[in-house]
Amino acid sequence: MSNAQADNAAMVSADGVPLKVSLARALRRQKIRALFLIAPLLIFVLISFIAPIADMLFRSVENTIVPDTLPKTVVALQEWDPATGEVPGESVFAALHADLLVAADEKTHTRVGQRLNYETPGISSLFRKSGRRVERMDPGNYKEQFIKIDKDWGNMAVWETIKRLSGDYTSSYFLSAVDAKWSHDGIEFVPENEQIYQTLFVRTLVLSVAITFTCVLLGYPIAFLLSNLPMRTSNMLLILVLLPFWTSLLVRTSSWIVLLQQQGVINDLLVAIGLVDDQNRLELMYNQFGTIVAMTHILLPFMILPLYSVMKTISPSYVRAAKSLGANDWTAFWKVYFPNSIPGIGAGAILVFILSIGYYITPELVGGTTGTFISNRIAYHISSSLNWGLAAALGVILLALILVFYWLYDKFVGIDNVALG
Amino acid sequence: MAALPPYASSAQIAWHYGFRTICTLIFLFLMLPILVIVPLSFNAENFFTFTKAMLELDPDGYSLKHYNDFFTNSDWQGALGNSLRIAPMATLLSTGLGTLAAIGLSQQHVPFKGAIMAILISPMIVPLIISAAGMYFFYSRIGLQGTYWGVVLAHAALGTPFVIITVTATLVGFDRSLVRAAASLGANPVTTFVKVQMPLILPGVISGALFAFITSFDEVVVVLFVGSAGQKTLPWQMFTGLREQISPTILAVATVLIAISILLLSTLELLRRRSERLRGLSPG
Predict the structure, then answer these.
(1) DSSP codes joined into one string, A41-79
(2) Which of A53, A111, A150, A219 gets the highest tally of CB atoms within 10 A of its CB?
(3) How would residue A193 be classed by pLDDT, with cut points 50, 70 and 90?
């Protein structure tokens, strides 16, 4: 940097390069070095985590199985208009025959039947039955022969379903996930008493709110006590909060089973002191009560820790000032201390709520049939009913719900402030 | 909330003790599961409740038979072995990659920092059931479902956010002039990292590693979907045990796991104090 040069000239670094360029280069090098350090993990997370989530998003709308297994039928169906109210003509049945011959050979006809069965019950057996007999059909007059195998081939609903699902992508999983389906006159909801998913979403939200509320109720006094005790004592008591926090989730769930079951510790105690008759012991678990108790216990530390960290920063002189101005204990707390602690309540409550709506293990083990969450239904569709598309659609809805709450959390609290104890 | 002042009114005294009672009850609620499960694991009977002999503190009411079962039963030992094969490898992966990334993220100029951070933290935010579902779908596409490496990759991904958070927190207090000083004295970047930076951020790295380890060691949802019978871990074995036919051995396993948690918790606390002392944040 020589000032000896003309004043108008750009400043130059020692090696003669203009300072601006030199600085920009250094900055660029710094950025590249930072990215270089981050890249391995970023690639790792993208492959092992983000790709699976993207795959799930994809699977919730993917429907290639129908056009892949019945390629000719799908093309032939394009010209058929369900509004005529008539079953498709011979050309479509001929195409179906050709497709089913290949599919039965590759044994894929049962899978496509299963897929269509999610929409219109009965199609699965229809395809299985027809797949067995399609080889023995005589050439020509396929429509009649198919309807002879099963009169359902003359059913409008079957053909409408196939036509509706002939594209590569479908919204049908999402419709099922909110208890809706296609009918003759567009989308309609299934009757109220059959609405399982809406009921489950509502139940998940209601139970999560209940759990969050009990966590606030139980967490607030503890955080208040911890933040007002001398450091040494509060650190000792904090261990009582952190130990359950660090204990394995399954350990805590199993101890709640031991405590709550009908032959369990709590019932035994109640019988022993004569509050409950031995014949009609209380049903404390395999219901919503069990889920709320066990999950409140599991999530309580997530409430206490952020609340405590906020309360620690509230200066005791505020309350003292209020009291010196004549407020009684309650007014000083309610008008001065409590409003200052609201950010902590907000942080803890949103955290507990988000964690709770995605919970799986505890509701599965102590929830019975009335205390389970939407997660349990997702797991059921993956491992038992094998309706992966519906599982994916439910997962996408749950994920969207959680992202909204995280956005709120980030807005009000900041994601970087997640307390880890 | 400290001691009661001598001039406290009777209402204040009542509230003082009332509040303490409420807090004691809540602490009891927090500790109850642990307090109950530890003594019950020494039950001589196959019951899940306190027997008369136990309440009378009769030595015959207690035994180590459930522990004996845990350490001799091939199912439980197999599960423990799997856990011990999976968790350290997942920890190694997430700690190594996570520490590097945290150092990168704490540089002064990082392009797209917000977006990168969001991606790296996302495994912690997304509910486990959704991660498990997505991984099940995707890993079966690429042939990783039901393999050892599939489970390790999944667990490593779940553990990295904790490493990032703890190491970044340690780096906040890191004095950059130390690196410059080392460089000006002729150390190359690798020497600077190994001799100067690493020893100072080590407590953060170790706590991150412990978090990653416990994440993998306790994790059940993802391994349930991504793993197959050959990767049955301890939590998985407990989960099936609880769901199908609950055996008292679970109580012994639970007690062993509680002991491990206590060990980890004390290690973390020691590390935190050491880290704060190194950074001069607290007198110790």
Answers:
(1) HHHHHIIIIIHHHHHHHHHTTB-THHHHHSHHHHHHHTT
(2) A219
(3) confident
| Residue in B159, B129, B144 with CA at minimum distance from that of residue B220 | B129
Q: Measuring CA to CA, which residue among A199, A206, A240 is closest to residue A223? A: A240
Do B141 and A55 contact (CB within 8 A), yes or no?
Answer: yes
pLDDT at residue A223 tops 90? yes
Burial of B36 (0-12, 13-18, 19+ CB in 10 A): buried
Contact between residue A132 and residue A104 where contact means Cβ atoms under 8 Å apart = yes
B165 neighbors A396 (Cβ within 8 angstroms): no
Alpha-carbon distance of A66 to A72, in angstroms, equals 11
pLDDT in tens, A307-338: 998 898 888 899 999 999 998 888 999 999 99
CATH, range B74-278? 1.10.3720.10
- Cite the beta strand spans of A165-288 per DSSP E: 180-183, 186-189
Question: ipTM, 2 decimals?
Answer: 0.85
**Min Cα separation B274/chain A (Å):** 16
Asked whether the beta carbons of residue B221 and residue A360 sit closer than 8 angstroms, the reply is yes
| Domain boundaries of chain B, sorted by first residue | 10-61, 74-278
- B149's CB contacts (< 8 A; 6+ apart) are none
How close is the nearest chain B Cα to the Cα of A228, in Å?
Answer: 6
Nearest to A378 by CA among A389, A394, A359, A366: A394
The domains located in chain A, with CATH, are 1-59 (no CATH), 65-170 (no CATH), 196-417 (1.10.3720.10)
Q: Which of residues 60-79 of B touch A (CB under 8 A)?
A: none
Q: Name every chain B residue with its beta carbon within 8 A of the beta carbon of A355.
A: 127
pLDDT, one tens digit per residue, over B56-86 is 777 777 888 889 888 888 888 999 999 999 9
Smallest Cβ–Cβ distance between A50 and the set B98, B119, B214 belongs to B119
Instruction: Give the nearest partner residue to A225 out of B23, B29, B254, using CB atoms.
Output: B23
